[in-house]
Specification:
The structure holds two protein chains of two kinds. Chain A has two domains: about 90 residues, RNA polymerase sigma factor, region 2, helix turn helix motif (Rna Polymerase Sigma Factor, Chain: A, Orthogonal Bundle); about 80 residues, Winged helix-like DNA-binding domain superfamily/Winged helix DNA-binding domain (Arc Repressor Mutant, subunit A, Orthogonal Bundle). In chain A, helix 9 crosses helix 10. Helices cover about 75% and strands about 0% of the residues of chain A. Chain A is mainly α. By secondary structure, chain B is mostly helical. Chain B folds into three domains: about 50 residues, no CATH class; about 50 residues; about 50 residues. Chain B contains six helices and no strands. In chain B, helix 1 crosses helix 3, helix 2 crosses helix 3 and helix 5 runs antiparallel to helix 6. The N and C termini of chain B lie far apart (about 105 Å). The chains are: A mainly alpha, B mainly alpha.
């Protein structure tokens, strides 16, 4: 994916510390970056902080942007790295505590029944009229393994092509498709277990 | 005969509508024989449709303003850091020049006007001659000094136009 003419002009202006150009870049990409980050990290506060960090990092690192990929791909790459950093920090902070707590809750039968619609073969559009399904999907996405989650959100929610995802994550094209297949399969499986009840 | 696992990537492309026609025909032929893969395709289609219906998150309105404010601060800090760096570089150059000049001035002999030097040389030579005549011997240090003065005077004379 090459840099588009519009983005090339924007990048050139940003490199001269043109704050208006920077604002244009933020306006153009903030919703996509925020949407991606929000789905990965699971809460608004961290999503806002990381989105902000993505653009500030982009501003101060533009001289290192080689313009061989699209601006969007580059921003998603920065976002991915920042999200991974956050996840690593979270893992260090929580350690085994969260795992122990979750296991305990499961053993005690904790956690409410999410949705009482066992029919998964129905029309998802109709099912999605129910707000709960959105929450359920988000929860299922958050429980996906991290690498699968990145690919699924980038492709199925942010509509990046396989090639763009391969560039953003630095993985081969075949790996993108394979991870996407397994992410969807796992998500579908998780949804079925939620909807069919405990 | 391909194993089901080998159809995974083709299934993804098929569900996304990016599969080449020939590959799609091959997959469809496989799906007609393989219930597991056919089920996988249906599941992926269902899920993809569900996800496309999911409401997209949008960044809150205040976020762009917050980012812009932080960007301003970042640019200001960067400009200040560059200015500090330039000042430090300039200060280093000036310090080096001052130290160099001071060192050179310490090492180089003090410049004495040629006329004064000649007068001084004459006085030393005279003292040396008087000392030698009166005492019958000359102070060795005075002798050395007189020789140096003599040499320097000769050199100055030879250089003068």
């Amino acid at each position: 994916m090459r840099l588009s003419d519009a983005d090339a002009a924007l990048v050139a202006r940003c490199k001269t510390n043109d704050l208006t150009a920077f604002e244009e870049m933020v306006e153009r990409y903030q919703h996509k970056i925020y949407g991606y980050v929000r789905r990965l990290v699971g809460n608004e506060t961290d999503a806002e902080d990381i989105t902000q960090e993505v653009f500030l990092k982009a501003l101060t690192s533009l001289h290192a942007f080689r313009e061989e990929s699209s601006l969007q791909t580059w921003l998603f790459r920065i976002a991915t790295n920042l999200c991974r950093d956050l996840m690593r920090r979270r893992q260090r902070e929580r350690g085994w505590f969260s795992l122990w707590r979750r296991t305990e809750e499961e053993q005690e039968g904790g956690g409410e029944r999410l949705l009482d619609i066992p029919d998964l073969e129905g029309d998802p559009e109709r099912l999605l009229l129910r707000e709960e399904l959105g929450e359920l999907l988000q929860r299922a996405i958050e429980e996906l393994p991290w690498r699968m989650r990145e690919v699924l959100v980038l492709h199925d929610l942010e509509a990046l092509s396989y090639e763009e995802i391969a560039e953003a994550l630095g993985i081969p094209l075949g790996t993108v498709k394979s991870r996407l297949f397994h992410a969807r399969a796992r998500l579908r499986e998780a949804l079925a277990s939620y909807m069919e009840g405990d | 005969m391909k194993a089901c696992r080998e159809w995974e990537q083709a299934i993804v492309e098929y569900v996304d509508g990016t599969c080449e026609p020939q590959a799609a025909r091959e997959l469809e032929a496989h799906l007609a024989r393989c219930a597991a893969c056919a089920q996988a395709v249906r599941a992926q289609q269902w899920l993809k449709q569900a996800l496309t219906q999911l409401e997209r998150d949008r960044a809150p309105a205040y976020l762009s303003r917050r980012i812009r404010d932080h960007a301003r601060v970042a640019l200001w800090q960067r400009a200040r850091a560059r200015r500090t760096l330039r000042l430090a570089a300039a200060a280093t150059v000036v310090t080096a020049m001052v130290v160099g000049w001071w060192g050179a001035s310490r090492l180089a002999p003090a410049s004495v006007p040629a006329a004064e030097e000649q007068a001084l040389a004459q006085a030393i030579l005279q003292e040396y001659a008087e000392s030698a005549a009166n005492d019958g011997f000359a102070d060795p240090s005075l002798q050395l000094l007189a020789r140096e003065v003599h040499l320097r005077t000769s050199l100055a004379e030879s250089r003068s136009p």
